[in-house]
Amino acid sequence: MDYASDAPPIDRELLDFAVRLAGRAGQMSTEGFFGGGWHSRRKEDGTEVIEIDVNVEEFLRAELSRRTPDDGIFGEEGGVTSGSSGRRWIIDPINGTTYFTHRVPLFTNDLAYEDEYGPAIGVINMPLRQQMVVAGRGLGCWVLPGPDPDLRSGRRAHVSERTALGGARTLMHNPAGWPEELLSALHRRVFLMPSTGMIAALVTGWADAGVIAGPPMGYEDVAPMPVIVAEAGGRVTDLGGASVLQGDMSVLVTNGQLHEQFLQLVKDLPRSRDWQALADED
After folding, report:
1. What dotted CATH number matches 12-156?
2. Is 221 annotated as a binding residue?
3. Which of the ends of the chain has fewer CB neighbours closer than 10 A, N or C?
């Protein structure tokens, strides 16, 4: 499902609602982060989950069901709730639970909305940075500051204008899972940096590109990206150039002008390695 730039703009009131909702999710997760008293466990897929993940998602589901009762919901923890409207919300209550449990303040609260035209709203809330990146189809991309984000206090976001691949500032996510070939190819041409907020860095022009490889992302991880990146003037696909929502769940996000150059650079390269097997050898 690609972003349709020629589709009608999303309703501003619905975008404001999404901002308020993600802000409240941020407040809840921040209280939990500093409050402690929670325990983590492993899900069947090996990823961590804590009570706060579940509590935040349950809150979001309840508010969405009240405000848009006919819409479907897909959440990382609660799975699918069917709707009758053909539209749906996608929830990642705490993206980066491992960061959360290790007291690293890099987790986010992610929310996306898809209607009959495709991606329509994307929200990535970074509560401990007191920063939110939000976009609505046809309404632009915005960076909102403070503990109580509001579109009226935000600033319009736009990607960089760099056209030269050599030395492009490129954020890398999860490099422990990258194969040597991918890491080397990028290292030879661009300026690689660790990611501490890839999408926010891209849409504000601080970074020119970002790469996510290794273990595949979940749909809920990538769902906010198409509308946010497109409304800021950039482009996002998987590393093979397919739709990020229908590809292999790797991610290439750029300012748009560099995208084809990056695709050629990583063409046919492997995208993951079994880093856990390496760790088990010891």
Report:
1. 3.30.540.10
2. yes
3. C
**What span, in angstroms and rounded, lies between the C-alpha atoms of 129 and 124?**
12
Mean pLDDT of 173-202: 95
**Dihedral of the alpha carbons of 150, 146, 220, 140, in degrees to the nearest 10:** 40
At the topology level, CATH places domain 169-272 in D-Maltodextrin-Binding Protein; domain 2 (3.40.190)
Q: What is the pLDDT of residues 67-112, one digit of tens each?
A: 999 999 999 888 999 999 999 999 999 998 888 888 889 999 999 9
130-155 pLDDT, tens digit per residue, is 999 999 999 999 999 988 898 888 99
